[in-house]
Specification:
two-stranded antiparallel sheet; six-stranded mixed beta sheet; alpha/beta
């Protein structure tokens, strides 16, 4: 995994090198980050150069309040949280518990994200904070 410096985008990284069944994720094919709302012009250009598809995991309210600065790359919206994202913080839910909830409640959307990634198009997956 390599941390990436993309203007205005926090928590950006290339997940290449991570182990998967039968090998490792190839470098440059799967990126992960936080929101793209504050991407600078240079950051947008970098994203356009690096990826052919974006998967946005944020819900409709998050997207409406903080739209992506990257508009020229095909984006698939696959919100993982059903209901309020804030509820996870209100309930003081830890990451492990939150991820378990996501698998139980959003499994089909996670599978849809994997299908997009499996097309082998260079893909950036992002949410609000990039965890």
């Amino acid at each position: 995994m390599t941390v990436l410096e993309i203007g205005g985008v926090f928590n950006a990284r290339d997940v290449g090198g991570m182990p998967v069944a039968g090998g490792r994720i190839r470098d440059g094919v799967l990126l992960r980050s936080g929101s793209l709302v504050a991407a600078t012009a240079a950051g947008v250009a970098e994203i356009e150069h690096r990826v052919g598809h974006i998967i946005d995991l944020r819900d409709g309210q998050e997207v409406a309040e903080a739209p992506s600065a990257v508009r020229s790359v095909t984006t698939t919206s696959l919100p993982l949280f059903l209901g309020s994202v804030a509820s996870f913080f209100d309930d003081d839910m830890g990451l492990e518990e939150m991820y378990r909830h996501l698998l139980e409640e959003s499994g089909e959307r996670l599978a849809d994200a994997v299908r997009v990634i499996a097309r082998e198009e260079r893909t950036l997956v992002h949410c609000t904070v990039g965890k």
